Amino acid sequence: MMTKKPSAAPSASPQGQPPLPAPASPPAPASPLPPGPTAPSPPPAAASGTASWARHIQLGLIVGLGVMAIALLVSKRVTVRRIEEAFARERGALLARAAREHTSLLQAGAQALRVQGHELLRLSALPLSWAVRTELLQKDLSEVGVYFRQIVREPRVRRAALVGSDGVVQVASNQKLEGKSAAEVFPGVPMSAPEPQMLEPSPDEVVMTVPVMGLTERLGTLVVGYEPRTFQPPPPP
C-alpha cells in the first residue's frame, strides 16, 4: 500500500487571514574609509634603469676585486723575486769572499811549504857537498860519481853534477853531460854564488847550488836538480 507524500503548504495564508510579511533584508555594511595617499609606483622605464645601474655597480665591484687580487699576486711574486735575487747576490759575494780567502790561504801555505822544502833540500845537499869536498881534496872524482848515482835514486831527485871553477861539468849522474858547459846543461843557473841557493830556472825543475870550498880556494859547485811538484800548492777543492 502506497503512502502519499504530504503536499507543500500553500504560499497564501488561509482564507480570511492576511499574508505574512516578507523577512527584512540585513542592513548594508558601512562603506570603508577612503584610502590614504600612496606613493606613486615608478614607471617601468625607471625601474629598468635602476636594475641596470645596480648590475653595473655589482660588475664593477667584481672587476675591481679581481684587479686587486691580480695586483696583490703580482706584487707578491715581484717581492719574492727581489728577495731571491738579493739572497743570490749575497750568496755569490760570500762565495767569492770565501774563494779569495781560500786562495790566499793556499798561497800562504804553498809559500810556507816552498820555503820549508827549500830549507830541507839545502840541509840535505850540504852533507853531499862535504862528501864531495873530501873526495876532491883526495883527487878521487870516481867516488864523486858513485855519490851522484846513488843520490838520484832518492825520490824527486832528478840529477846531480859537479861544475869546476872553469864552468865545465866535471862529474855528473848522467855521464853524457860530463865535459859540457854548465851554461848549456843548467841554463839560467849562476855558478858563482858564495852561498847555497835555490833556483827555479824552468817550470819542470828546481835547482840547488852549493859552493864546494877548499882550504884557500873554491874547488867547484855542486848542482842538484829536483822535481818541482813537491813544492807546488795543492789544487783548489
Explain what the structure shows.
The protein contains three helices and five strands. It is α+β, with helices and mostly antiparallel strands. A five-stranded antiparallel beta sheet has the order 2-1-5-4-3. α1 packs antiparallel against α2. The longest helix is centred in the middle third of the chain and has 94 residues, at 44-137. It is rod-shaped, with a radius of gyration of 63 Å. 14% of the residues are buried. The model is unreliable at 1-14 and 230-234 (pLDDT under 50).
Any descriptors?
237 residues, alpha+beta, 46% helix
Question: In terms of topology, how is this protein built?
Answer:
Elements: H1 44-137, H2 141-151, E1 157-164, E2 169-172, H3 182-185, E3 197-202, E4 205-213, E5 218-226
β content, as a range? 15-25%
End-to-end Cα distance, whole Å, is 141 Å
Mean pLDDT: 74
Number of helices: 3
Contiguous uncertain segments of 5+ residues: 1-14, 230-234
Radius of gyration equals 63 Å
Helix content range: 40-55%
Main sheet: strand order: 2-1-5-4-3
Could you give the count of β-strands?
Answer: 5
Structural class: alpha+beta
Q: What is the gist of this entry?
A:
It is built from three helices and five strands; from the N terminus they run ααββαβββ. It has helices at residues 44-137, 141-151, 182-185; strands at residues 157-164, 169-172, 197-202, 205-213, 218-226. It has a five-stranded antiparallel β-sheet with strand order 2-1-5-4-3.
